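Reviewers asked in the last cycle whether our approach scales beyond single polypeptides. To address this, we selected a multi-component target totalling 739 residues and predicted its structure end to end. The input consisted of the following lines:
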Amino acid sequence: MRRIISVLMENAPGALSRVVGLFSQRGYNIESLTVAPTEDDTLSRLTLTTIGNDHKIEQITKNLNKLVDVVKLVDLTEGAHIERELMLIKVKATGSLRAEIKRNVDIFRGQIVDVTSTVYTVQVTGTSDKLDAFVHAIGEAAVLEVVRSGVSGIGRGEKILSL
Amino acid sequence: MLSGGDMVIRALQDEGIEHVFGYPGGAALHIYDAIFRQDIVKHILVRHEQAAAHAADGYSRATDRVGTVLVTSGPGATNTITGIATAYTDSIPMVVISAQVATDKIGEDAFQETDMVGVSRPVVKHSFLIKHASEIPLAIKQAYYIASTGRPGPVVVDIPKDCTDPAHKFEYEYPKKVKLRSYVPVDRGHSGQIKKAVQMLLDAKRPVIYAGGGVIQGGSSALLVALAKALNYPVTNTLMGLGSFPASDRQFIGMLGMHGTFEANTTMHHADVILAVGARFDDRVTNTPGKFCPSAKFIHIDIDPASISKTITADVPIVGAVDSVLTEMLALLKDTKESPDAEAINDWWSQINEWRARHGIYTESRYNTDGNMIMPQDAIKALHEATGGDAYVTSDVGQHQMFAAQYYLFDKPRRWINSGGLGTMGFGIPAAMGVQMAERDAVVACVTGEGSVQMCIQELSTLKQYNLPIKIICLNNQALGMVKQWQDMVYDGRYSEIHYEESLPDFVKLAEAYGHVGIRVTKKEELKAKMEECFSLKDRVVFMDIMVDPSEHVYPMLVAPNGSMRDMWLSKTERT
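The resulting structure, written as structure tokens, was:
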């Protein structure tokens, strides 16, 4: 099962490599990974998506918690949560394709953020599934370049991950 | 105001560190100059940095102090990696201070530069890279705190040369206490879970206590004995746990696992409740996890939550320090009106005693004693006798290690010092060196083989320099015995790369060349007298080169793959 694990860790040198190293060392998968400082500049927030059965996920969270740099973590997929990923995608846009792509962008509530006479650069945000669907809708032949941010997530309602 | 180099040594003094095992070099020169200008912290100059790490490890295992290593950058640092990994796998506290090239050189492939924090990352509990001299006191304080608390382990502090520069001085204050928001080791276990565990133990018909190295590291041997006595339940130890329960006690059923006793493995297999204390269900214990102890419920006490339900799912997991959990269990047992089912426990003991009598290695000799050759088991028994069973015994890795584990009956914790998890050949001599440095008056023996001993044999020189009179008991079977055993059993006797032809050194002369005493034993009837002679030479290092039966195997041995714990080879021809 796919899980989104959100980690609050010390914004210290080497902290990220310890997290990433743990995954390769113990043979766990990382599907995506994002990390950036938080409003408290001593802390970083790292969000990763991984796939595994309950036993594997339990081991992943336990071993992450063991890292001295990790302050707190939560498996967002255990409760209601909001998941977002941002994609910038460059697509061929010539002739009749231009209108077709514009329609698709509107349907997916994306934005065209850069335009040339032959290329649109589109920004789409949403769940990873939605971004996959957009790529599919555009058609692989038209896609020139895709860059995705990796998943960020936050719990719904009053639940917060903080010190 | 102190320079960074002086801060390192002052911090060690303030931490109460008496001994540092190390080796100097370019990037560490400022720190070594600080060592020269004081005489509180004593430095032991090893002959290879790997040995510094093993010595510090042995020092930690034999005491409740934390072994310390000091090395230079590059090869000095990387040479410690095997030693750090050995300590990491066995959860041994250690602090390794490695020098690093100057900050402005880092990343430039400078002379003797390696990314020590990166190289050591998978085998340390934590590591620090110093960015400024003023960080040194806190980092060292935190390093000792992290290394010695929770599930212990090695911590690296990497210090660039410019941060130790004597020309730059800064305020020095050694923190009295340290607290990390991101590291809060557990102490007490969940009392609800502990209650449940006690009830499960009281209801058991076929219980067994399976105790590991965590009991020793957690200083809880006395509590374990008290619990076992209160319940009258059998106790088995892991390789790492030997000595946590007295081997000469009636309730001790021997080591379990790959080369565990028949009675211990069979008892585990048939148990209905297993209390695992500070043990981690390692693959050398469980054999095939799917066939492991089919009718048992598991209570698992461990300080590390990640150890629980990793390979075997715990029915009652208890995350906590072994001492506090056992104390709470004992209190509950004292207060309860219930007691174990005496009849069931009696029947269980009758069954266990029947197993003991049938194939137990302590009931009678299960190996051939009729031949002319010295049997390795008899060498260990002679060692036990000559030392009154009260020596610190370190070992290397292989058959001799298993014979020592089986036949040197350890009655006290911290006396059996071996690389159980990583299985590091070359561990024995330097570890013994560390033990002897920590316990100057103790009798320290290193059980080894002619293969392992050559992996860190250069330390014979260090032993001379510091007058550390360890006794080296080399079971010389002229081949890599454990590999040979597997090649006999699994590869139809195709002995691939296990012999040295005529190249083995004359160990007696070698010992003498290093200024020690060498004794060769070739005859069965002289074993006892020569062993006594060895231990009568109290102030000397003695290398006992004991020529043992080269064809002997270690038994029992679990049948793998796909075996359960009751599937064992009992001899070359006999299987359960």
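Chain B has 21 helices and 22 strands. We regard this as preliminary and will revisit it once experimental data from Aim 1 are available.
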